[in-house]
């Protein structure tokens, strides 16, 4: 972890719809926090590496989100587009503690 990062409590896990996301609005670029069917959470910049589509409005399946604009599939763990597409969405560290979601910001 970067020492310039600090953890902020975002919400309860249950405040994020399963297979959905919650948007964190920032001037430096919004962050989409996703929840999978098995209650894992992942955070990516809300900006598709293709043409900046809002990943927060995509469809979550497994540990992947499909971009709502042109259906690129983005791996939630790595932020990488799945082949044959190439690109990467910035990831943010996120963790769950006692049912609450914490996001690391810098
Ligand atoms: S902007 Fe996401 S697939 Fe085109």
Automatic annotation (TrEMBL):
<feature type="domain" description="Rieske">
    <location>
        <begin position="8"/>
        <end position="103"/>
    </location>
</feature>
<keyword id="KW-0479">Metal-binding</keyword>
<dbReference type="GO" id="GO:0046872">
    <property type="term" value="F:metal ion binding"/>
</dbReference>
<keyword id="KW-0408">Iron</keyword>
<keyword id="KW-0001">2Fe-2S</keyword>
<keyword id="KW-0411">Iron-sulfur</keyword>
<dbReference type="GO" id="GO:0008942">
    <property type="term" value="F:nitrite reductase [NAD(P)H] activity"/>
</dbReference>
<dbReference type="Pfam" id="PF00355">
    <property type="entry name" value="Rieske"/>
</dbReference>
<dbReference type="InterPro" id="IPR017941">
    <property type="entry name" value="Rieske_2Fe-2S"/>
</dbReference>
<dbReference type="GO" id="GO:0051537">
    <property type="term" value="F:2 iron, 2 sulfur cluster binding"/>
</dbReference>
<dbReference type="InterPro" id="IPR012748">
    <property type="entry name" value="Rieske-like_NirD"/>
</dbReference>
<protein>
    <submittedName>
        <fullName>Nitrite reductase small subunit NirD</fullName>
    </submittedName>
</protein>
<dbReference type="InterPro" id="IPR036922">
    <property type="entry name" value="Rieske_2Fe-2S_sf"/>
</dbReference>
<keyword id="KW-0534">Nitrate assimilation</keyword>
<keyword id="KW-0560">Oxidoreductase</keyword>
<dbReference type="GO" id="GO:0042128">
    <property type="term" value="P:nitrate assimilation"/>
</dbReference>
